[in-house]
Amino acid sequence: MLFPSPISKFTFKNFDFLIKRDDLISEEFSGNKARKFYYYFEYLKQNPQIKKIISYGSNQSNAMYSLSVLAKLFNIELTYYVNHLPQYLITNPIGNYKYTLLNGAEIIENSEMVEKLKNNSIIFDKNTIFIKEGGAVKEAEFGIKMLVDELKEYENYSVFLPSGTGVTALFLQKHFTGRVYTCSSVGDDDYLVKQWQELEINSDFYPTIIPKHKKFHFGKLYKENYEIWLELKNSGIEFDLLYDPIGWQVVMNNLDVLGRNIIYIHQGGLKGNESMIQRYERKLRIDN
Ligand SMILES: *Cc1c(COP(=O)(O)O)cnc(C)c1O
């Protein structure tokens, strides 16, 4: 794994940014999931009695794929529960779903089980570790603190990253002395604050939320999201298609808030683009 990850210069629409390239940590285990799950990487090294990881979430989740890499690395099982598995995906596997299966993981449709896991009402044996959806766990702090250590020279910069569960942004701000800015993409801004309150009572550690100019439904396709993604790609860096198009719109609409020195955290997720690109191509063909 490539630690520290590189920091590259990036010019977009005539503005200069620095990009923290966590997408380059490694081919397989990269992005913010590598940071969030780094604790488990160390834990599994020291605990060979662990034979299984259990988690749950969406059937195209970046976290699911990263956990499958981890399980494969340590030659243990991953059982991942989803609410819904469309027949179309089963017969035409693509993206994170496909690569998770190729890593030997088991993906099971069982919404009752998902509900129980969400409510923490399952007791696991001592050879199993359970990881909440998206890695929204306090253990994530360990690896994100390492990311902050790599940003030491940039304390006069505004750090920006789009949030899902908000956990990466939270632990970044907790340890970073400069300002961390984020926006919501799953749920609204209140959801983010609720997530933070579950993991950290001291609100001094909460990142600054920049409101979005419009509401986006997570995972839905928006022409403007695809367009900014393509412009970013043509400017030299491929970002993810779920979170980053929202993040970059927020950045470009709020350059006055963020100031001159901005460092944008590239949180990986490129494996997931395969299925998103397919969906966008289908949509854009129909719309045009
Ligand atoms: C998971 C993920 C996020 C969201 O991270 P949170 O810690 O849940 O806020 C953002 N970008 C990418 C590419 C991701 O894979």
What does this structure look like?
It is a single chain. This protein has 288 residues and is of the alpha/beta class. The chain folds into two domains: 167 residues, Rossmann fold; 97 residues, Rossmann fold (3-Layer(aba) Sandwich), CATH 3.40.50.1100. It has 13 helices and ten strands. The strands form two sheets. Strands 1-2-10-7-8-9 form a six-stranded mixed β-sheet, sandwiched between helices. It has a four-stranded parallel β-sheet with strand order 5-4-3-6, sandwiched between helices. Helix 9 links the parallel strand 8 and strand 9. The longest helix is centred in the C-terminal third of the chain and has 15 residues. The protein is globular. The mean pLDDT is 96. Bound molecules: pyridoxal-5'-phosphate.
List keywords for this structure.
six-stranded mixed beta sheet, binds pyridoxal-5'-phosphate, Rossmann fold, 288 residues, 2 domains, alpha/beta
